[in-house]
Amino acid sequence: MLKTIKAVGAASLLFVSGQSVAAESCGDVTIADMNWASATFIAHVDQYILNNGYGCNAELVTGDTMATGTSMTEKNEPDFAPEFWTNSMKEALDKGVAEGRLRYAGHVLTDGGVEGFWVPKYMVDKDPSLGTIEGVIKNASLFKHPEDPELSAFYTCPAGWNCQISSTNLFNALKLDQHGFDIVDPGSSAGLDGSIAKANERGEAWFGYYWAPTAILGKYEMVLVDFGSGVNKDEFLNCTSQEDCLEPKVTMYPPSIAQTVTTDAFAVKNPVVYEYLSKRSITNNDLNKVLAWIEDNQADGVIAAEHFLSNYPQLWKEWVSADVATKISKSLTQ
């Protein structure tokens, strides 16, 4: 109990002392640099803001979902993971939080990760019914199959990915085969991206599975097809996403929660930085645009972070105090 009181007291003093004391006491910080585009971008943004705005000595360490979550829970390192898709190991993370070893700082993706079936926006602009599954089925002949002119194409997730299970189950639940659709495996993520890019560049029809945030949805406007079913989370978790789902029912994909996870020790030591992490959140629409810029310019994380901070001040200045914002802005011009 005495240790708890001392810890709380120390945290309170840091808050009262203000931004300058927090910066001076920030010290060394380790940030998980996860192995996908949006996560590594956010990690570099956090590193820049912590180093230049809060006086930290922030270092990126390679990470991935399972290894990072386990290390943070068992070894108290790294200090935080900026973009953690927490549903992937929710039970273990919740246990770490309950036991006082971890904390959820905030939702880094404002609207969560989005999955579903999509069509190009120019199709919906021309015929709004194509934003619904009924409209897609009614106009199945528009979606030309790349190999069989008698069939309509539904592009699925690449083989071996977990989303292939859910997209196939939903294909069956919607009985799309009975309306002339055939599943087209793009072979890879690049193949799936290529099919979307080709259709958009040519103004052709396209229908299939995809997700956000991604660079491809930053380049091309796509519309999430409404199944008219709403989200049945229990059905999705217990059947739709399971390979042995024998009688799948129609449901939209539930949003995937993407949070910033910190160790409890880091949150206690650096409450002002923890407050920043709790505020730092970006919409899929904004992140899609940044990811598209990164891909088009083949930018690494450092360049991407500086591009974002230089060109999107209206976003990141909402996350920090005016004093910290001034420090960051000044560093960008040096």
Oligomeric composition of the shown chains: single chain
How many helices?
A: 17
Averaged pLDDT, please?
91
Span between termini: 48 Å
Number of domains: 2
Please give the share of residues in helix: 40-55%
* CATH architectural designation of the largest domain: 3-Layer(aba) Sandwich
Determine the strand fraction and express it as a percent band: 15-25%
- Describe the strand arrangement of the main beta sheet, using strand numbers: 3-10-4
Poorly predicted residue ranges: 1-23
Organism: Parendozoicomonas haliclonae
Domain ABC-type glycine betaine transport system substrate-binding: 28-310
InterPro entries: ABC_Gly_betaine_transp_sub-bd (IPR007210)
GO cellular component, one term: ATP-binding cassette (ABC) transporter complex
Task: Tell me what you see in this structure.
It is built from 17 helices and ten strands. The strands form four sheets. A three-stranded antiparallel β-sheet has the order 3-10-4, sandwiched between helices. Strands 8-5-9 form a three-stranded antiparallel β-sheet. A two-stranded parallel sheet has the order 1-2. It folds into two domains: 2-111 and 257-332, D-Maltodextrin-Binding Protein, domain 2 (3-Layer(aba) Sandwich); 114-240, D-Maltodextrin-Binding Protein, domain 2, CATH 3.40.190.100. It has helices spanning 2-17, 19-24, 37-53, 65-75, 90-98, 121-126, 133-138, 162-173, 189-202, 216-219, 233-240, 264-269, 271-279, 284-297, 301-311, 313-316, 322-332; strands at 28-34, 57-63, 80-85, 102-107, 114-120, 152-155, 181-184, 208-212, 222-224, 258-263. β6 (152-155), α8 (162-173) and β7 (181-184) form a beta-alpha-beta unit. It has 334 residues and is α/β, with parallel strands linked by helices. Residues 1-22 form the signal peptide. Keywords: Signal. Residues 28-310 form the ABC-type glycine betaine transport system substrate-binding domain. GO terms for molecular function: transmembrane transporter activity.
